[in-house]
Specification:
single chain, 5-stranded mixed beta barrel, 17 strands, 14 helices, alpha/beta
Amino acid sequence: MSYCFIFKSLKFFLKMLLTRTFQSAGITFLNRSFTKSAQRLDYNKRGQYENPFSRTIRVLKGDVVNTFKNIKKGPSALIREVPRQVDIIIIGGGAIGSSIAYWLKEKANATSFDVAVIDKDLSFSKCTTSLSVGGLRQQFSLPENIEMSLFGYEFIRNLKQRFGPNADVAFTPHGYLVLASEEGVEQLIENSKLQNELGAINVILQKPELKDRFPWMNVDDVELGCLGLEKEGWFDPWSLLHLLKQGAEEKMTHYIQGEVIDFGFRERHDLIIEGVHQSTIHQPDSVVVKMADGTENTIQFSLCVIAAGPDSGQVSRYLKIGEGDGILSVSLPIERRKRYVFVFDCEKNPPGLNTPMTIDHTGAYFRREGLGGKFIAGISPEPQNEPETTNLDVNFNYFDDHLWPTLANRVPAFNAVKVRGAWSGFYEYNNFDENGIVGPHPFYSNIYIASGFSGHGIQQAPAIGRAVAEMILDGKFQTIDLTRFGFDRLLLEKPLMESAII
């Protein structure tokens, strides 16, 4: 065993000793706002109060045993060891969860508090992020969504300064083209005006201008188009996820492969929640994680963020959200939806290399994939035709019956195409208003939510991660005010809808 490894092991053990001691005494290295929401864990599993010294001894006994069990495996084994307690747990390691972890560590000293990210599959081969088409646009009607996507562009533009000279997500800056029929003209113009006021750069094109710029397009049933000239395009979502995860891990974030199957609670007699008359509040303080080998681990936390994408609704039910009384009777309205992405070749007179991501007024979309005649396309189904979400199988008849007629009408060259493949992916559909839910839960002060972005999450992940980190560490949003995206709008039954946006 090398002296270097012995030194690293001793350094790790000393850090663990100091961290456990301070945590047990109720001392954190975070600012005052975090300390308010992340209450101390002063009770053992039997609900008995423990003074800081005895609790430190109990926790360290388990940590020391686990540490020296794995010490021969090298320093990486120490990092991978499932912790018994962390300051902040993030459920979901996709783009949103990894962005939150990255920004928490970026904004504070990397060693000042512990962050753990739990995900069922750390290969992310089937997660929402990896299976998305990676679009980036500012063409929304809500200021918050516009501003988050503007920051998404700035984040991608500065990747090399943030993550090193090899950081790249293959950004393709060909913009978005959103088409409007006669009914959508006024809204498209209004949206474009707001977008440009906030810093986007796009232009409204009349029917003759559309035909002149895109001669391959049939514009008979199109009145206007809004074309993004800068800051829009598409990128490789897996690469962005990889950079965020790598950045979080380099700042000492734990990644744990496992599935959250339950929460632990403890009684709190010192909490007062507005509108709640209970004398005793049961506050969540731990998660039960089922590992790949079937074993279960319990991890205590001070604060937990639900960023589990399409599984967020199920995770929230473990907290009795939507199944209790009063505030807890309101559920987290996030469900799993499956969407198909089809890949096809158009060999004869295809749209040119500068073809933007085109969004038809029917809801269909298409864009080029590479420099050849390959394209990808998709369309959301009608509510009565939603596919089952028990698997990721693709119904290829859906292309012929629902998508191809629309594509061929818009682009006559698409009358002769050959489907080369397809994939499907799940995304987190917010059936309340199809916008994200960001911020603390009104009943559980130590539970935060960052989910429900309904297909917009990958482009907004950098901004969402920064916003959640601001709320946790600073007590309020500092850059983009996402107050309207909070859970309270569900209690007030005030949906925050986009206008004429897919």
